[in-house]
Structures are given as C-alpha cells and as structure tokens.
UniProtKB/TrEMBL annotation:
Keyword Lyase belongs to the record: no
Keyword terms of this UniProt record: Hydrolase, Metal-binding, Zinc
Cofactors demanded by this protein: Zn(2+)
Family that this chain belongs to: Belongs to the metallo-beta-lactamase superfamily.
GO MF term list: hydrolase activity; metal ion binding
InterPro entries attached to this UniProt entry: MBL_superfamily_lactonases, Metallo-B-lactamas, RibonucZ/Hydroxyglut_hydro
Gene3D superfamilies membership: Ribonuclease Z/Hydroxyacylglutathione hydrolase-like (3.60.15.10)
CDD domains given in the database record: metallo-hydrolase-like_MBL-fold (cd07730)
Name by which UniProt lists this protein: Metallo-hydrolase/oxidoreductase
Domain Metallo-beta-lactamase: 43-271
Length: 293
C-alpha cells in the first residue's frame, strides 16, 4: 500500500492552484447529513503542475468556461438552471495568463471528467494534448446534437489532440489498482478513479524529491465529510445522487481514505471549501505554489 520510494535525483512537481469559477450547490445532493435548503458555494479549482526537471506545464482541470451559458447543450443548461447558480469572476485561462503562462505553452491538460465545472474552455490551448478517461469517449460520441438528449457536445474536445486513457495502460500505485506513470520517472501518476462520471481520473504527484505527495481528487469526493466519515454520499428521490455509480464511488472514496493514512500526502478536492476559505488570494495560487508536506 506504500507509495513508490524516491530515486536518486528524483523529479517532482511544483503545484499551483488556479481560480476557475464558483457554483452554488444544494448540499443535500452531496452529503446525507445536509438539510433540504442548505446551499454551499463550491470553488471550482484547477491546478497547474510544473515538472522539476523539464519544467513541462501540465494542467489538471479547467473549471467553468466563462461562456458556459452559450457553450453548453440545451439539455445540460436545463439541468444546470434547475439546481445551480454559477459565477465566474476569473476563469482558468485568465488564471494561467495572470500567473505568467501563455495558453499556447501548455503541453498537457488532464480533465478529471467532462462535467461543465471541470472541462472549462479548451479552445485557447491549441498546442495541448487533452487526456481523459477511456469511458469519456462514449459520452461525446455521437454527442450533442446528434443525440439531442445528451449533455455533452460532440466537439467538446479536439479529436486530433485527445488521448483516451485506458486501464490497460496502467499499473497499481498505493491503494489504487490502476495508474499511469505519466512521465515515466515517478513524478506524476494519472489515476483511474471510477464512480462519479465515466472516465473519471485523478492525479497523484510528488511535491518534493524526498517523499512529499499531493492527490488532486477531482469529484471523487465533493466534501471532506465523505473522507472523514462524518457523512455518506447523498442519494434521495428529490435531489438524486451526484455519482453515476454510487457503489463504485464509495469504493474509490475508500481508496482515498487509505491514501490519507500514508505519510506526507496532501489531498485536495476540486471543490475544497475549507481550503479555499483559508487560502483564497494567497500564495498557493499561481504564480505561487502549494507547499509540500
């Protein structure tokens, strides 16, 4: 269950948070302890990781697209307007630029999944390869509008620059059965974390040469109470369930719980409310970086 040991001259990643919008969510969709009228403002965090040796910029998630109301499918907009309120004071593109990076310089973008508050606006990143889970393919093929009832547009991702990552390419890492050693040097692993939406991925990255780690959890867990045991995944007739496969999502959460027991592992949720309240506008955001444990 241990994570890989550090090698001599071990490469690692410097990780920075990116502002990428907010969504107000009925908390009773997320945890089974919430009241029916409880609303939580979720930050939508994205992350830029820089490889310590190559300085390769790698982005995990893109948050909410600024033009979300014009860019999403009609069925998706209907659902969003039913449940959520959205605000995008600064999107991931602006966060990248304010942090000193040109979107054209980004080589790789891994999306945890293709929900609207994670896929952002891929269009400015014209030199990036997009990495998504293999099971994302069926969500956009044929996609909207060929399938008028689906949420996801057929051209959401650039077809010639999208890598659909399968578990056949992966090996176990720590408590997770499937992960890809992306750079081949133990610095960054793309982890298969099923349950929320088909194709859901997380990132596990070293943050120091001597054993610090960060786990970027996407929507594998929306709220810390799911990881501390203070609440369970909500599933009700009125609010529904936030996960496509609740049982598998619970298995993934158990893996994250096991990961948290290992030394020097920081877990970050994409909608990490307490972390955001403590760190908004601070040094963990690009051009600064998140401190390694």
């Amino acid at each position: 269950m241990n994570l890989p040991e550090s090698a001599e001259n071990q490469p690692y990643c410097v990780v920075s948070a990116l502002e990428a919008g907010f969504v107000d969510v009925p908390l009773a969709q997320i945890v089974d302890t919430a009241s029916a009228d409880e609303i939580a403002r979720f930050p939508c965090l994205a992350f830029l990781l820089r490889h310590s040796a190559s300085q390769d910029p790698f982005i995990f998630d893109l948050g909410i697209p600024r033009n979300w109301a014009e860019s999403l499918s009609r069925p998706y907009l209907k659902l969003i307007n039913k449940w959520y309120t959205i605000e995008v004071p600064q999107d991931a593109i602006e966060s990248v630029q304010k942090g000193g990076y040109d979107p054209l310089s980004i080589a790789h973008i891994c999306l945890s999944h293709i929900h609207f508050d994670h896929h952002g606006d891929p269009r400015p990143f014209t030199n990036a390869t997009f990495i998504v889970g293999e099971d994302s393919r069926a969500l956009i093929n044929p996609g909207y509008p060929a399938d008028p009832g689906t949420f996801f547009k057929h051209d959401l991702l650039p077809s010639e620059r999208t890598r659909f990552l399968s578990t056949a390419e992966m090996q176990p890492v720590g408590p997770f059965p499937h992960a890809l050693d992306f750079y081949g040097d133990g610095s960054l692993y793309i982890v298969d974390t099923p349950g929320h939406l088909p194709g859901h991925l997380c990132v596990l990255a070293r943050t120091s040469p001597d054993g610090g780690w960060i786990f970027l959890a996407g929507d594998a867990a929306h709220d810390w109470r799911l990881l501390t045991g203070e609440a369970r995944i909500a599933d009700s007739a009125h609010f529904g369930c936030a996960h496509r496969n609740k049982a598998v999502a619970e298995e993934t959460i158990e893996c994250i719980k096991a990961l948290r027991q290992l030394p020097r592992v920081r877990v970050m949720l994409s909608h990490d409310v307490p972390w955001y309240k403590e760190n908004a506008g601070g040094t963990p955001f690009l051009p600064g970086s998140i401190e390694s444990l």
